[in-house]
Amino acid sequence: MTDPASTPTPEAPEAQRGSKARQLLGMKGADGGDTSIWKIRLQLMKPITWIPLIWGVVCGAASSGNFVWSVETVMISAACMLLSGPLLTGYTQTLNDFYDREIDAINEPYRPIPSGAISVPQVAAQILVLLFSGIAVAYGLDQWAGHDFPTITALAIGGAFLSFIYSAPPLKLKQNGWLGNYALGASYIALPWWAGHALFGELNLTIVLLTLFYSLAGLGIAVVNDFKSVEGDRQLGLKSLPVMFGVTAAAWICVLMIDVFQGGVAAYLMSIHQNRYAVLLVLLIIPQITFQDMYFLRNPLENDVKYQASAQPFLVLGMLVTALALGHSALV
Question: Are 93 and 44 contacting, i.e. CB atoms less than 8 angstroms apart?
Fold first, then answer.
């Protein structure tokens, strides 16, 4: 008689495919086991993290006020998305795994490097290829835009350096809850926004300061990721906000930063007479507050992923609303 425990259930193949998909996307908790070197390289680049950077390019193009729909501009926008997403975010994520390989050997031994699925020299080669490919694409974008000063190339090099000091000793900004999370927030909001704006318009002080201000809301979003590893961070001496202030206080700091700085952006839009956009941004903040109360503040350790899935779409839509307001203001 066949042992029921050894008989595969109908759901098993689907679950296995789901695990493979999670692995390729670079999601936390995904099982390892893939032997294809190209799939392993893709896993290191964490495609799931490219989306906010690609969206940031869209926001930058919108805020320039100069984007027009054509085959050429769509293709050049796609090249900028390639720069911000697969190339430089892929570089950042691979670099981070390279410097976290000893910690991952304890916390996530199935990750490509600690599992031995890819060698350290192969990872180093991937980091260099992604970095120099990103700089080359950035230079090509500057040439297309006719920049006297290679703005997008400078942004690519500056972002790559920020990624290095975020992950690598001795600075390793990720060890500091405030600096690390703000660096992450600025990388996900400000940098791709600047690149998209510079591609179609002139990057100016207003855009720089406003997106850096917006990145403080991004800092709050980055803090959400710290709750899933609070015990490990405490044992390793990492000064995340939940470790420094406790889970409850850090949860309140997180949601207040998300809401207050978006509210500040809405106030700025009103000050430049973009009232309809300001009202729409406020309307997008309201459901975020609702989900904060429903999920995050009640149990941040259990509901962090559920909160992100439900609330973050409203945050990114708010970014686009802000970008459209700035683009409209530039045309007035």
Answer: yes
Tell whether 191 and 213 lie within a shared domain: no
- d(CA 309, CA 135) in angstroms, rounded, equals 32
Give me the CATH number covering residue 320: 1.20.120
pTM exceeds 0.90: no
The reported pLDDT for the residue numbered 174 is 86
239 shares a domain with 180? no
Q: Is residue 28 part of a domain?
A: no
Burial class (CB in 10 A: 0-12, 13-18, 19+), 241: buried
Picking from 231, 228, 220, the residue whose alpha carbon sits closest to that of residue 177 is 220
Q: What burial letters (b/e) apply to 142-153, b meaning 16+ CB within 10 Å?
A: beebebeebbbb
54 occurs within a structural domain: yes
pLDDT in tens, 178-223: 999 999 999 999 999 999 999 999 999 999 999 999 999 999 988 8
Q: How far apart are CA 250 and CA 223, in angstroms?
A: 8
Residue 176, φ and ψ in degrees, nearest 5: -105, 120
What crossing angle do the helices spanning 177-200 and 151-167 adopt, rounded to 10°? 160
d(CA 22, CA 308): 17
**How far apart (Å, rounded) are the C-alpha atoms in residues 214 and 56?**
12
**How far is residue 138's CA from residue 127's CA, in Å, rounded to a whole number?**
17
Answer whether residue 18 is part of any domain: no
Please tell me whether residues 225 and 147 are part of one structural domain: no
Amino acid identity of residue 157, one-letter, is: I
User: What does each C-alpha distance from 320 to 15, 55, 61 come to in angstroms?
Assistant: 35, 8, 10
- Is residue 16 domain-resident? no
Q: Which residue range is the domain that position 168 belongs to?
A: 35-203
User: Angle CA(147)–CA(153)–CA(155) in degrees, nearest 5?
Assistant: 110
